[in-house]
Amino acid sequence: MRVKTESKRQDILDAAAAEFSLRGFHETTLAHVAERMSSSKATIYNYFRSKDELLGAVLAAAAVPATAALLKTWDAALPLAARLNAFAEGYLRMQTGAAAVALQRLLITKGAKSRAILGPFEDDPDTHALPQLVLLFRDEQEKGVLVAGDCLEMARNLCALLHGDLPLRLMFGGMDQATEAQVLESAHAAVRMFIAAYGEGADRA
Predict the structure, then answer these.
(1) Are 75 and 84 in contact (CB under 8 A)?
(2) Is the dihedral of CA 50, 123, 132, 92 positive or negative?
(3) Are residues 102 and 21 in contact, defined by beta-carbon separation less than 8 angstroms?
(4) pLDDT value for 202
(5) Which residue intervals are the DNA-binding region (predicted)?
(6) Could you tell me if 25 and 81 lie in one domain?
(7) pLDDT at 2
(8) CATH no. for residue 169?
């Protein structure tokens, strides 16, 4: 029985992400992934049952850690709007990058047809809702900065506001790339709408 290690699994995910972004889902084979990591298809099958399952794992792995890293810079001493703006700017820079756009296109075109791809997201509904952001929102509610309500819904709505402009236009060919000025404008607009809906007192301004 082959021994599984987290480092080898991560090597597979990194190689697969690079190949999917370069070739697209349909043109990428597990042989390509194995070649990139100087390994074998048998090694990949020891961790993932299919190419669909591998793509689902790549997408799930890309979503949470990168967002968690952004939230580590959350400065409680700053006004809520400033904190959200900093998060939104970093999040949109990440989501409008070429690799992220390519992977999201794969999820849209292939994911609806494969439970193996959607599995990591369906099994953990908080994956999209950013668990760390949910916890931070609860702290803001306790301080009276955010209105009472479902923090999971708030996190989802903030993500929807951020995804609803530049990432969608990039995914569907409405633009080739986003400029820094466009990222800032879109991020700040999303934060303004979020605070208008959920902010208390001065934070609505």
Answers:
(1) no
(2) positive
(3) yes
(4) 47
(5) 29-48
(6) no
(7) 67
(8) 1.10.357.10
Helix 98-111 × helix 51-71 angle, to 10°:
140
pLDDT at 17: 87
* Host domain of residue 141: 62-204
Whether residue 57 lies inside any domain: the answer is no
Total number of domains constituting the chain: 2
Residue 27 carries which side chain, given as an amino acid letter? E
User: Model pTM?
Assistant: 0.68
pLDDT of residue 173 exceeding 60, the answer is yes
- Which pair of structure tokens corresponds to residue 131? 């668990």
What are the pLDDT digits (tens) for 19-30? 988 887 788 999
Q: Do the beta carbons of residue 146 and residue 154 sit within 8 Å? A: yes
Q: What pLDDT does residue 193 have?
A: 96
Angstrom distance (rounded) from CA 144 to CA 205: 15
Record the tokens describing residue 36, joined without a space: 């990139």
Q: Judge residue 186's burial from the number of C-beta atoms within 10 Å of its C-beta, 0-12 exposed, 13-18 middle, 19 or more buried.
A: buried
| In a shared domain, residues 67 and 42 | no
The answer to whether residues 93 and 40 belong to one domain is no
Percent of the chain with pLDDT over 70: 80
Please indicate, yes or no, whether residues 103 and 198 belong to a single structural domain of this protein: yes
Residues 173 and 108: beta-carbon distance below 8 Å: no
